[in-house]
Amino acid sequence: MKFFRLDLLTLLISLFILNSCKNQDKFGLGANSGASTGTNLIDASSSIVINTVPDDSVATGGALAKNPLGYFVDPIFGIDSSSLATDINLPGMAAYTPPTGTISIDSVRLVLSYADGFYGDSIASSYAINVYTLNEKYVDGTNYYNTKKWNVNRNNLIGSSTFNVKPSDRTFSARTHDSVTITNIVTGGPDVPVKVPPQVRIPISPRFIDSVLFNASATTLGSNTIFQSSVKGLFITLDQKRTKGAGGIFMIKPTDSIHVYYRSNSGTAIDTAQVVLPITQMAAQIHHDYHNYPQAVQAELNNTTTGSRNTFYLQGLGGLRAKVSFPNVLANLRASLRNRPSKPDSDIIIDRAELVVTPSPGTNTPFWAIPKISMYQLDIAHKRVLLQDAGSDPRSGGEGVFGGYFALDPNTGLHQYHFVITAYLQDLLLGKTVDYGTYIAPIDNTNTGGVDYLPTAQVASRTVAVGTDANSPFRIKLNIIYTKVGKVLSQ
Question: Could you tell me the pTM of the whole model?
């Protein structure tokens, strides 16, 4: 029995030792037999260079999940505004024949349904919204961008309304998360109250509907294409002079409509009815006042060489992003090998590399930081691609490991963003990838199906983050755990 126990103990120890010897092929590397078993932790924060730069233009046309509409005066970033251009269609999106008899319009409402993502002042601000017609046709299916300046007929104001988002004000409240009770028109029967999803209902001129629908020519109403060539589309915008307070940016669903409530008098009976003109496409016209940014933001935009030491800026709605590089990180790691003259052929395997971004204290009040940001790189053609740690690379741990969420770090007690970029830095170290440009930028946090990296207008929030200031405990940090091993074999 004694010999049996000794053999069993030996077997268990052997299994433990073998299990502890990690195969470096899991990092995409191969090492010779001179591998070191020691690991090292370094703070490579001083090797980071980060600059604030404008984001790329954003595709907003079509039927995106949500579209920004608003006017927001940010105390740090200045003024942001977004208006919506939309199509307009005949009822049923086909030829339309008006009802017979005498038509009397009771009311007309443009219905805009809210999507999640309001950003701004939800307490003290009030809003005024205007609706105009377009002088140019909204072409369905066109991939419009946020930089397009729409040709608007400012002399044809067909609708206007004022509201706020304060829940206590039930009369003029936008109530972006509360259902709304309306009267549902039932042809040939009594009207009934119904609850509908959160929405804003803007009064539209009955005269406008009379002219484009009930009193339009048979030719105009003969097809949806001809109708759209005549009416062209709508332009919905916040009236900046009548919007009070800091304001905000609303997110609007793309499939909305104009509801027309009317009475039909055929001589023998009078009945109430409704007809709906669908809106199926919209595009956002977004304006960031770059030339009149507050001085601190403008100073960072003008600094394109030395990097930001104090703060850098991330802004939604295709506003601002940050370019980040690590010009000295790899050189410093390589230099550390020269301290091992007995192993001149030694190299490094990065076990874990984590980039930590911390907002500047006080900048999250009263406006919260971006819920999620992303990190991506450019390929040789300067197109956006995912980092190795975020894509299909076998070393990637997926979205949950890669990070980017604004979350409380239990170790620091701070809300921070964390990115795991182990594979990316390892490939830079080995020369397997080239840094044609690496960026940190806002993304829509409601997409949980993968890592986003394309510019988006579906998030309106912003973040002011601490740069590379060595004297700040909140500075951007790069923590690297690595192992010194024998010279890496070529693949």
Answer: 0.84
